[in-house]
Write a structure and sequence with these properties.
Elements (H helix, E strand, L loop, with lengths): L1 H17 L2 E8 L6 H20 L3 E3 L2 E11 L4 H13 L6 E3 L3 H13 L4 E3 L15 E3 L4 H15 L4 E6 L2 H14 L4 E7 L7 H10 L3 E5 L2 H13 L5 E4 L6 H4 L4 H4 L3 E4 L8 H14 L5 H20 L4 H9 L2 E4 L2 E4 L11 E5 L5 E5 L11
Parallel strand pairs: 1-3, 1-4, 4-5, 5-6, 7-8, 7-9, 9-10, 10-11
Antiparallel strand pairs: 2-3, 11-14, 12-13, 14-15
Helix pairs in contact: 2-12, 3-4, 5-6, 12-13
Amino acid sequence: MKRFFAVVLLLLASGAAAQEKLAIGIITSLSGPMAAPGKFQMNGFRLAEEEINSGGGFTVGGRKYLVELKVYDTRANPAEGASAMQRLATVDKVPMVLGELHSGVAAAAAPVAQDYSVPLILTIPTGPNLTEQGNRFLFRVNANNDQLTRALADFIAKQGWTPLSFIAWNNDAGRGGVNGMKKLLGDPKIGYVGYFNVGEVDFSSHVSNIRAASARAVMLLMDEEPGSLAIKQIRDAGLKTQLVGTLAMGSDRFLKRLDAQRLEGMVQYNAFPPNANVPGIRTFSERYRKKYGEEAHGFAAQSYDGLKLAVTALQKAGKIDGRALRDALAGIEYEGVIGRIKFDAKGQAHPPVYVTQWCADGKRRILYPENLKADCGAG
């Protein structure tokens, strides 16, 4: 009998140990003008958290843990982002933080991460300068604006869609995208450039300027909601100019905002074509649709990879220590949903970038890279 109780106590103790939770910080925009993409980011984090924990968690230095996400809403505000990062480092004492959406918020949080030796893993911000500051505690899973625009510029140049005009967010991501395209195409191939602030909904002055510039194509560097409004106003004005968008404009969710006829022919850079016949993408898309009842979004895929990679780094580090985690991340090579993730000396990963196009039936095809071209329905 004593032996029986000893075995029971041992099993209970091991079960309790298996349930020990390790908090990982999350900063993102869950309210305000960027709440919609924040939802996609959290969907990816939550799906990864669920899979890690349902699989029994992970082991660091011989101890078993489950993931517990400690989430702070930055409301796309740099001051809120810096404050949240500091609180996670000093009050919650998390070993690492993942997030953010907004490049400006990420720029404010990054120095705090360095000050407290807490790695910050970005999964969405695209501002190129983020990884140019010599911050050894900052890592970025997703492609930056330079990487995204390089693929798109190569495609646009081959199509002869110049001069190229722009309507872009008046922030780091928007201006960074425009400047990146200027460098790649050259100033003579750039037409009208107009910026707007987050929350603005009237693009009539930009539409008039695009008409006056006789633009062959116009690139919309913005998110879903302003993108749908800009496209509607461009088409309602009778302009037939070629439309070029961001990855936010390449999803079924975006199609619900506009009819397929308005979108037909529009191209966009894409870090995650959810219907591509690529094993990792296909599997993730199926899991995502089963959980959330909608098509998988690139922001979710990048964030899913970010958390899975973070846990892999914890295991590799062998201890819960910011500096050890930084070193583990610097040398990691992870095969993710979005492709192979390996950070360069600046902390920037180099995942694949695609160019997809809307078809008349509301489906998408892959146009770039050449070796992955696919017909309508596979984008």
